[in-house]
Amino acid sequence: MQFGRVDHTKQVNFSLPVDHLDTSVVLLNCTNKELPKIFVGCSQWSPSKLKGFYPPGTKDALTYYATQFNSVELNATFYRIFSPETFATWYQKTPIGFKFFPKLYQDISHWKRLNGVQEVIDDFLYSATNLKEKLGTIFLQLPANFSPKDFERVEAFIKSWPIEIPLAIEFRHTDWYNDASIANRLFDLLETYNISNIIVDTAGRRDLLHIRLTNCSVFVRFVGTNLEIDYLRLDEWVERLKQWKQQGIKEINFFVHQDIEKESPLLAAYFINRINAELGMDLQIPYKEQNLKLF
User: Is position 18 within any domain?
Assistant: First the structure.
């Protein structure tokens, strides 16, 4: 993942900011008494990207991947709409409890820019719903040049979205957050329609690390640097999620990206191990010999 990449990470303050003031208000209304649902995974299961993750002779990458992780952030759906049969096949290859988190097709977000997209959305959902109960939160990633001047398009899109299908949105233009009047209007809209406000933790765009929840679910896209500091960053995330668990958060969706994606499973495995220890969970820890030096 190239977004937010910097060449000199020593100049970056990687500390998590304090929670937005209204995040505690949102969590106060969650009152979850049970353990939260936690899904951790990579952005894909491609053997060409996750080199070294698959044992020699692995015949089906998804089948193996799903024995190691309980979810995947499905970025492939950004580039084309897969057939209903393909989604049905993915459903059959994965175990009970596994979740897919598909990114909406780029025709919706980048080409048509939310204008006149209902037919494309219908086609996308017609296929994706073949994942049945394994369909996790679908997410919309808006381009960096999609600014608040098109707020009405966002509002119309959200109001037309089927309420039974969880949705998260990633806003990349900085004006969505640095103008308080726009930000508050956006947050109110997301809260009203139960839409998750995606948090992006990447080196070059610390403004997207807003720590503003808009419902009882958090969707984090963590972009590593392929440096040791990534483990300290994950430690800090574990502490923050532990606090949110105590405040009643219902679902945590956390996906690990790397510039060199082959290291993503190792980083995710470390994170899952820490989540289990600190939040009292029992998530599958992906096996890799390198993990032994981390735990």
Answer: no
